[in-house]
Automatic annotation (TrEMBL):
Gene3D superfamilies: Cupredoxins - blue copper proteins. Keywords: Copper, Metal-binding, Oxidoreductase, Repeat. Residues 172-275, 318-425 form the Plastocyanin-like domain. Coiled coil: none annotated. One of its GO terms (molecular function) is nitrite reductase (NO-forming) activity. Its cofactor is Cu(+); Cu(2+). Its EC number is 1.7.2.1. Homotrimer. This is Copper-containing nitrite reductase. It comes from Aspergillus avenaceus. Belongs to the multicopper oxidase family. It catalyses: nitric oxide + Fe(III)-[cytochrome c] + H2O = Fe(II)-[cytochrome c] + nitrite + 2 H(+).
Amino acid sequence: MSAAISTLFRAKARYTIATSTTSHITSSRSSHFASRPCFRASTFSPKRGPQVSRYITTSTKGAGNGSNATWAKYILALSATAGASWYLYTQQGTLRLDSGKTFTHLHPLAPDDEVSLANAQAIKSLETLDLPEESAILTTAPNVPPPITRDHPVLLNVDLTTTAKLEQLTNQYKYEKWTFNDTVPGPFIRARVGDVVNLKITNHDESGMPHNIDCHAFLGPGGGAPLTTVGQGETKSARFKLQKPGLYVYHCAVGPVGVHIGNGMYGLMYVQPEKELPAVDKEYYVMQSEFYHEPPEKDENGQVKDTVEFSWSHALREAADVVVFNGKEGALTKTPLKANLNETVRIFFGNGGPNLTSSFHVIGSNFDKVYRDSDVLSPPGQCVQTVSVPPGGSTIVDMNMVIPGTYTLVDHAIFRLEKGASGYLMVSGEPTPHLYHSNQAPMPCEGCKLHP
Ligand SMILES: [Cu+2]
């Protein structure tokens, strides 16, 4: 058989040489091209400029010269190869293991029912999967559930309830927010890769508006939205296997989706990798988002109302009226994040949007580690000053706090500071004059929102 294959290759080689392609390219562009053997000058057209033409001829001279003998070798070689293939094909299927047992692969031409039976045995529905069961610890921003220390997957029960709730949005105005579990952002959900989330969603929004969950950690159509849409008073459950680690945004995806997100329906789910990130001293949950509202109306007495309503036109123009961390102006300035000197602080930062990309920055610090876009499988970036976080995206940043004082969280698209986007991280500890010193007292500028 090897002689036959050798004959085949030699015949093939001759055929390739005999049919080798020759290109003739003409050009008047430059003497550089013209000097090359395969280029020759062509005419210059005043309308079209220099004309380049390319001729490709395929010469098959000599291919038929030998003809009958070559074709006979071809046929002989093909017959030999086919015979060898058939022999190998008839021998496949059974594998003898060292243990003496045999293992039989499914025959490639096995009847459909045999293949279906094998698949049914291999793939178990998430409904019947036998896993230990846990209820997820859900926390309200800026709090984060403790790290998961188990090393095996569980069926993780996550219960979410949708509501509508009038509450303070800015120092001046109230706004009816649409929520998961009564908070904006929704609760922080911590899971581990390999877990199966058993999501139960109940709709307590009395307006009759349906809601659902599109979670970026759930792979499959709509991120789970089609399976979780609930009308008023309804409850639905669905299960999703967490296949990839990272920090994922979840949000309501009922149309018009921008309205549901714009009214506050988003949160974060952290899917820990098998090997969790290095431990830190403090972990916080911060989520940026923006709101679009009409000017306040007047009541029957001519008084300006203290409540504002969603503005479709502002949202379409992406002209945000309010940009905030954790759902309202002052959420992180009236109740700052806290740490002690020389502690490492981790912020799980998400952007609900619905429209604006955040340039997340902490004034006075920089990020010692950044798991960019919440990629927790790659090495982190180091010493990064500002991180870009798109709507529906997130990042994880670590900061070593080596100087005491107050640090300000901002979106460095800095006019958003005037729309509410600021928060504080207060670091307690003894002064560190070897790192930060002046003989004069600090003097913040009047009305300063950055340096309290
Ligand atoms: Cu919704």
